[in-house]
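Possible race condition, two jobs.
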Amino acid sequence: MGGTIPLGYDAHDGKLDVNEAEAEIVRFIFTRFVKTSSATQLVREMKARGYKTKGRISRRGKNHPPQDFTKSSIYQILNNKLYIGKIEHKAKGEIYDGQHMAIIDMKIWNQVQAILKTNLRERKRESCADRPYLLKGMLEDPSGYAMTPTFTRKKNNKLYRYYVSTQAVKKGYRECPLKTISAPLLEDIVLDYVRRILINTEWLGQIIKTEKDLAIALPDVKAMLQNFDQMWIDLFPAEQARIVGLLIHKVTIHPTKLVILFHPPGLASVLHELMPELTLKDGEDPDMHKPMVVEIPVDFRKRHKRKIITAPNGQDIISGRNANFDDALIKAVVRAHKWQEMVETGKARSIRDVAVQEGIPNGYAAKIIRLTELAPDITTAILNGRQPKALQLAGMMDDFPIRWDAQRQHFGFQ
């Protein structure tokens, strides 16, 4: 059907035939990843063995020689359902049986997918103390004052990272409308828009040449970049900071919006690092130096003594987020359904009896058990770590609407 021929296969008469020499490399990638759970280590092992990506010749006859494997190319292989004999319809998201032979059996495939999901969850739980200030030197307030990194430690010894306006430091906090902003929350919003740009076909078209000049079709480029989230989490913090520095020139924080100024040449550099086989536009192209500006309407508000950033309608700004597992929220939802079942099955005569059996205050039990009234999709989102960033247990302990559609709006779900 055309498109890029994956490592491990050759195309003959419109069908994919297994290339045994390359298939051994694919099997090595899957089996070693099951044992190491590390794309970083796997890249080193692949280089030590001399393994290379599949070389290609474009439709215009340009030779794209084999390259050393990168984390991005490793993740592309680990997520490619072709290797289990399936075909994915990218537009519909549906999976079909292919006419080609599988290289990887389902047991190893399922083990790899489980590791990928586990890695995502565990890395999200790493202490924010290990994460650099990704937007250091890029932030300014509407008056042009820089926003610099700072932090504080609370009684539980947990580190909280912020960006503070130098205007507030120099002139006093009363003179500055922004003062401090949560660093993790602001960075997540900016990174979400970086991800959107990296998979935006229109903007990719400004950076790379037309499809007839490519060894790989533009839709395939976009599909590969869908793995950006997983690749990003696997990068070292210093590498994350370097990539952000290449992509973003400046972020101006207004009371009602965030303005992000992107570097097109930096975007081109990052694309080339992720996929060396891409043909990029020449440097003298004027579009390569034309700034790209994104404005994000926001609303800064305080909720339970925390400053949060939402859309003007109160909804969460970030879309397609990585899993954000909140142990306190998950535990509360599980306990709510457990206690509700105790009352319904007669193990407890009332909520007060539940509180006595569990050794907790009656008022607390009454507030937690109300979480059984949440819309099913909200409960599922919490258990899967897909709830809005600003949603925390403290915000769910107060009264909330009974109607499910009103709940979604109240808690900031898109």
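Job #2 (started ~2 s after job #1):
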Amino acid sequence: MTPSHICVHFYFGFAAAFIVYRALRERLGLSGSRLWMGVPVVILGFGAIHELIEWASTMILGPERGMLKANDADPFDTQKDLFNNLLGTLLAMALYSLWEMRKTPVST
């Protein structure tokens, strides 16, 4: 697994989490632990769909042209991809939460 491969999955989770965080908070009214559970579930769902598309492309196009490299020495590629999605998501959520706390005035 190359560093660029790791960065792509991490950045997907990071960028998409800002959108999903705000959408779940504004449209569905989620907050607190429900928001912190909902955002990773949605992002990891998108990541799982991507991994299934990788697999399907290899089944249809063959191992030479498909997205999934079956002869890769790393049997845990899918797990690492989803974990990097999760790490990017958690970082984005933490930054978004800090930003929101910074904007909220402290009452005395």
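Helices lie at 3-27, 32-61, 77-103.
Logs attached separately.
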